[in-house]
Amino acid sequence: MDELHEECGVFGIISAQPCECVGYTAAALLSLQHRGQESAGIAAEADGRILSQKDLGLVTDVFTPSVLSQFKNNKVAIGHVRYSTTGSNNVENAQPIVTNHSIISFALAHNGNLINASALRRNLERSNGIVFHTTNDSEVISMYIIHEMLKTDSIEVAIRNAMKVLKGAYSLLIMTNDKLIAVRDQIGFRPLCMGNLDGATVFASETCALDNIGAEFIRDVAPGEIVSVSLNGNVESLQADSVPQRGLCVFEMIYFARQDSIIDGESVYNARIQMGKFLAMQNPAEADIVCGVPDSGIEAAQGYAQQSGIPYGTAFVKNRYIGRSFIAPSQIAREKAVHMKLNPLRASVKGKRIILVDDSIVRGTTSAQIVRTLRNAGAKEIHMRISSPPFLYPCYFGTDIDSSENLIAFNKSIEEIRKFIDADSLEFLSLANLQKIKQLPQTSFCSGCFSGTYPLDVSGCSMKEQFEGC
Amino acid sequence: MDELHEECGVFGIISAQPCECVGYTAAALLSLQHRGQESAGIAAEADGRILSQKDLGLVTDVFTPSVLSQFKNNKVAIGHVRYSTTGSNNVENAQPIVTNHSIISFALAHNGNLINASALRRNLERSNGIVFHTTNDSEVISMYIIHEMLKTDSIEVAIRNAMKVLKGAYSLLIMTNDKLIAVRDQIGFRPLCMGNLDGATVFASETCALDNIGAEFIRDVAPGEIVSVSLNGNVESLQADSVPQRGLCVFEMIYFARQDSIIDGESVYNARIQMGKFLAMQNPAEADIVCGVPDSGIEAAQGYAQQSGIPYGTAFVKNRYIGRSFIAPSQIAREKAVHMKLNPLRASVKGKRIILVDDSIVRGTTSAQIVRTLRNAGAKEIHMRISSPPFLYPCYFGTDIDSSENLIAFNKSIEEIRKFIDADSLEFLSLANLQKIKQLPQTSFCSGCFSGTYPLDVSGCSMKEQFEGC
Amino acid sequence: MDELHEECGVFGIISAQPCECVGYTAAALLSLQHRGQESAGIAAEADGRILSQKDLGLVTDVFTPSVLSQFKNNKVAIGHVRYSTTGSNNVENAQPIVTNHSIISFALAHNGNLINASALRRNLERSNGIVFHTTNDSEVISMYIIHEMLKTDSIEVAIRNAMKVLKGAYSLLIMTNDKLIAVRDQIGFRPLCMGNLDGATVFASETCALDNIGAEFIRDVAPGEIVSVSLNGNVESLQADSVPQRGLCVFEMIYFARQDSIIDGESVYNARIQMGKFLAMQNPAEADIVCGVPDSGIEAAQGYAQQSGIPYGTAFVKNRYIGRSFIAPSQIAREKAVHMKLNPLRASVKGKRIILVDDSIVRGTTSAQIVRTLRNAGAKEIHMRISSPPFLYPCYFGTDIDSSENLIAFNKSIEEIRKFIDADSLEFLSLANLQKIKQLPQTSFCSGCFSGTYPLDVSGCSMKEQFEGC
Amino acid sequence: MDELHEECGVFGIISAQPCECVGYTAAALLSLQHRGQESAGIAAEADGRILSQKDLGLVTDVFTPSVLSQFKNNKVAIGHVRYSTTGSNNVENAQPIVTNHSIISFALAHNGNLINASALRRNLERSNGIVFHTTNDSEVISMYIIHEMLKTDSIEVAIRNAMKVLKGAYSLLIMTNDKLIAVRDQIGFRPLCMGNLDGATVFASETCALDNIGAEFIRDVAPGEIVSVSLNGNVESLQADSVPQRGLCVFEMIYFARQDSIIDGESVYNARIQMGKFLAMQNPAEADIVCGVPDSGIEAAQGYAQQSGIPYGTAFVKNRYIGRSFIAPSQIAREKAVHMKLNPLRASVKGKRIILVDDSIVRGTTSAQIVRTLRNAGAKEIHMRISSPPFLYPCYFGTDIDSSENLIAFNKSIEEIRKFIDADSLEFLSLANLQKIKQLPQTSFCSGCFSGTYPLDVSGCSMKEQFEGC
């Protein structure tokens, strides 16, 4: 697949009065669905126990009205949507993961990826005889929390102690019968925010989930912070060991997050508009129309149009009804198949010089098809503009940016890529310009996929050895 | 429901060599899915018999890879997607309808609505003892064709004879084991076009379905025309009795059809751009940004922006993952629920004077919610512009424009509507200006919902008495 | 398949007060399940309409608690279980068949088989343009009733008129919104009885269905009789044209009916005990034990044991959990596969001389396997006794006794059959002795499958041409 | 529920050559279905991994042809059918339980019940931080095996070490990728036997499962024995610590096992015949006919008839089609509802003096209904004979014989029970006579439910505290 995928979104709620926690969670997950479309799950407190429902599919597939109606009102719930990196897409790996133990029972939902999950798992297996039921690093985190609970009465302390050995990206939501705990790794790779819904406390991967259910934004969870909320709404905050540096994944701003979210204080929409504007300043072109590749290039294209003064227009109609599993007739040649999802708007592009903006190029095959499609629809010139630098290095922290050999920019020069996709010109936003955009949350974000410099030591990490992150 | 729905799309294919007719049909229906999301069905020739598969749901729900794999290669197939007017949404009423009879077996798919179905059905019941199995007017058409087949050997002649009594809108595809026949009523209310796919002949409600599978457009089927194609590709055309006047439903151009379709020679996209431009000339306003209500107001908004010189921007993020059946938590107040589908893009609209363009207003409740949402997100002024005249009269020809008492424009003046939706200003494109748009296929289209003047006599027609059209 | 199958059972109920008609019908069908295991269906009056639920599978598969709970209390219901003769086992052919027409709406359930269904169907198709939706002769009967309703106001008269052309076996239950009508063909091939359930009137194929729901037996429906019961319990009886002779299918007494049923005044159990006794008198043998083949030979074996004084014992354990669709591993040789269903009781048969009683032999392959199994389990001698005469002729009246070439007795002498199944001796009850059994309802039953003499002229009837009977 | 239930059956197979292990296992489970009807499961080796399929329902529900076809040929498989004692009937508790660990992966299927599962589980949770995923004592056994595997390389040694702490009844099958291990507790409460299938080695709860697939019986697994079979067919036997005494559950012979099984060398059928004969000698009665309650009293009734010389007959027809979930109409009074399952054969019982034999009486309500039903059907006298002593004490070893207060014999004298069920006379087989039956495997069986004397110390055991046994 020639597309990038985020890996997971989380949401949680705790309320003094029993309410439709599961309904709110399902509604919130709907607006986090862009972060993961493979499985959906919710765990909720019910009469002192933790029940969960999870399955492969979209939120609306898993949480049908009849499933939702089986949940009574309750006081705590967490939910999860998932895209798996390594392909073992099975229901056992769906989250939240519920852990029942005579000391404590809890459910855990995870967005991110540990880079030392394998070693941690082996350690627990061999020293204590622990048996794992999934290939998910979320279960490794859960077992370490239980492991630490043997030595302390406080789950917050147990979590902080576990964080000493957990290496990687993790934004976690953990619920017990009477607590909801949010945890963000010390680097802050993935977003996590906190809100208020008519007195109930909620946490979500992105603020658009708060909007969706009418909750008010309170604040972001800080890197390295453990925020624990009790039924009566008391909030306790612990901080894990010293934070080396912040490192929000820059691709959250470029592509993963929804454009109406505000992450660590900055608007994703504004950041993308700025990327388009910087790109227009960096690489102008003469053209009749500026178009974005739906849906990922739309905002950057609008920014480019605003900066350049060239009119913004529509080049493609995207078919919203093509599901993941739909299989095109084998006789429809690959070049034609792209029409099924993106049909060129001939009346708009015929005879035009077009600036076409997209967020990134992974393998280049999709870009090549898109350019060919536009040419066949009569476009005169196609100037491709990418609102991020070229991918040169893999990501170890929860996205599926692949090993270098599969990245076209690792293997070809920009001119070679231009020839491969057959554009009249091709330009990428430079890393230097990307760093100038003031809407990026802080000067220090993680841009390892462009630079090869990561906030954590990844030596010895292999993509193959990795566990299922989320 | 405060939304308009088209009622049905059809596609058919006939090929000298057995091919993936069913796969092509499913792929084509995907691009007609906007015309009907309640049921999907395909009938296909298989070893001399006609097999069909149909069910409630989207094309991808009904035609899963495992269902598609059950169909072998074949030579003829027709398909249908459906939205039902009168609410009896059950699988018996799904199409195509297969009629097995010792004289002839055929399948029929219908887009439109008969206005005399009740009388025709009663006539066949009482004179001949015919038993009907659906409440669908497509079955009435099928029974009349059989009735006429008792008197002639030619199905084309039987169809032409049946057309003498069929009153209303109908674009039909009819298949036998070795023929594919396309029929369009004498007024031409609904679109129907013909194409070529590597030697096979195809018909579709809209040209976007041809693009989708890589077929080339040949021509539109003319009002009153019967086009019969045999396995070897021979095309015969018969014409029904004299055509009083053409009358394509103008709402196909305004809203129903997909923007990349060309209907009766004119681009839907261009027509909508023109509607926006005329609206900008007719009712200008001072503003910072022009936005469209997703998805129906996007093109007219672009036209308005182009004409007025005011920048085009995005006001709402639409959640693509909310399905038909998703039920919001009851505690989410109605006003908040609209956020689930359309979340305002605060970073874009805050402090702005906005021109908001939509295609129509039915009951006004959705418009009121949208305006309120924008105000809460910080918009300073909201100037609503509608790219069609006000609805004053019901539609009898296959859309669900309701009886007058449910149409806000029938009951309130424009100023009263403006107050109801709480916009700073509100304007509709005038019927006079609509008629000036040269991209509307011909001077004589059906605009009965605006004017109350219909191309056929509708006296005596009641919405209640009507059958299920399609 | 080397087994005989009955084709269908029917049940109906009408009550002045709304009651659990559907629940009673489902319960009654359970005790008629031996008459058909392929599909089950119930139609019931609901607020002036007739609703039906039918599907492939056993009664408990189709009428799950959740399905039953969807039916409210009502006043009239009929139900049906089905085994199809000709193999087209699809849900369209399930019954009851509901006919909605502006003159009258009714549902019909049928046990039996018309021998002129093909000709009748063709006649209605060609003269009136009638379209059929099933390949079921029950639909032909329904259409003839509608056809006659065009000429009279009385459904009872219409039924009597239709009976003039219907040729064959049919025990029918017909319901409208306010009537329940039972019809038995003039010969009386298939049983049909009437009962009282706390004031409600019920009809059933067999009396065991009355016992099952606690209803009292009133009387049998007479051959050629139409019994019409209204909501208030009024009973009207019409008689069709003169009855040539009675002709209950003798195999109802030998095998089809449940042993606790009373048909046309005689106990099925007693008849089978008598068959065993006559067989013991006709063909005695020296043996240690008399065993029946489960379940069809059990009663005749008990009769044989009583008459001969040889102890009755058990030879086989039948596995009750083997479903229709279970497929044995391909590596289990055919001879071993019979153990899965019938395992020999070694402790009981080892070293014994056994008289093994069964009701009939069709192709002989099952008998051969059973004899081989007993020998392998250590039986010393096996004397096979069959409680009916040899099958020599096909049945046209609703059972699947096949065309002559597939009947082993048509092709081989009794001695040849004995060798084929490898028994030490083999004897069949003679037709002469069968006719002496006073528990057979009357001297004139239909024994066409033994004698080739049928109560109706079957010349020109071909098994292949036949419709789906039931 | 007024019925006894056995808890579980197991089957396993290991073959040098890949074969239809899963197909054989499914076929074998079919003949063990009487031991458990709530869930079915199979685990099998597949390319070095262990795959499992398990679900609620009968074997034919879970292992449909399409499910079976997904398994390729393989070398090792084990299967399980289950009835749960304590009512938590959910799919998580279905077996086999697969344990994946970096030291060893294995699957385990269990028939029996531990009496110290709670304490064992708590110990592992608190000392090692082990997390349990079921409430099943089979998981406790699995975790103890892993726990012992930390200290040894041999799974057989680990099992023997675990057996030191496991207290209770357990017949286990354990598979790895290349071994199949059978384990029977030191008392030998539950049966377990070994067979040969064309070179492959198989184990099963009962010999009828060997017959079913055409395997030959080799020998029983001895109490306290661990039999380990490798792919090449090598058999190793280890013995656990000294065996105090043997103690096969006597109810296996009375009721649980299938009548064609041979357990620990003795025929179940012969044992039941003997129970009937002893009962006839102990408590004769004048009568016309001896009948058994289907299906549990049939063989003892035959023995009674043989001993007494009174003819054996049929009193009830059992409806084989009533599933577990079928719900009778609420209007069918409880007394009538029994007819749905057991309809009296009026023609057989009317006017007769009947000896009615059953295997046991638990609460007495079913017996009372059966007697009343026979009286209503015209029986003159009913003499009830029970082929086992009265239940006075609960069972802790894997059957659901309840706590004493629910056992009618604990609360009433035999005369009081006779009055309660309204029989003309009632007698139970005495424990002294039961012990005289030479077909009972050895003098020392477990008859704790009659005597209160158990082969293991049960002090401190409470029914409520117990885990899910199997």
Largest interface, with counts of residues having CB < 8 Å to the other chain, equals: A-B, 61 and 61 residues
Per DSSP, what share of the residues of chain A sits in E-state strands of 2 or more residues?
A: 25-35%
Please state the overall shape of chain A, judged from the principal axes of the Cα atoms: globular
Q: From the structure provided, what is the oligomeric state, counting identical versus distinct chains?
A: homotetramer
By secondary-structure content and strand pairing, the structural class of chain A works out as alpha+beta
Please give the largest β-sheet of chain A. Answer: 7 strands, antiparallel
Distance between the termini of chain A: 18 Å
Strand order, largest beta sheet of chain A: 3-2-4-1-10-9-11
> Given the structure, what is the number of helices of chain A?
17
Which spans of chain A of ≥5 residues are poorly predicted at pLDDT below 50? none
Number of strands of chain A: 21
Helix content of chain A: 25-40%
Mean pLDDT of chain A: 90
Cα-based radius of gyration of chain A, to the nearest Å: 23 Å
Describe the overall structure.
The structure is a homotetramer of 470-residue chains. With 470 residues, chain A is of the alpha+beta class. Chain A contains 17 helices and 21 strands. Chain A has a seven-stranded antiparallel beta sheet. In chain A, a hairpin with a 4-residue loop joins strand 12 and strand 13. The longest helix of chain A is centred in the middle third of the chain and has 15 residues. The radius of gyration of chain A is 23 Å and the shape is globular. The mean pLDDT of chain A is 90. Chains in contact: A-B, A-D, B-C, C-D. At the A-B interface, helix 1, helix 7, helix 10, helix 11 and helix 12 of A face helix 1, helix 7, helix 10, helix 11 and helix 12 of B.
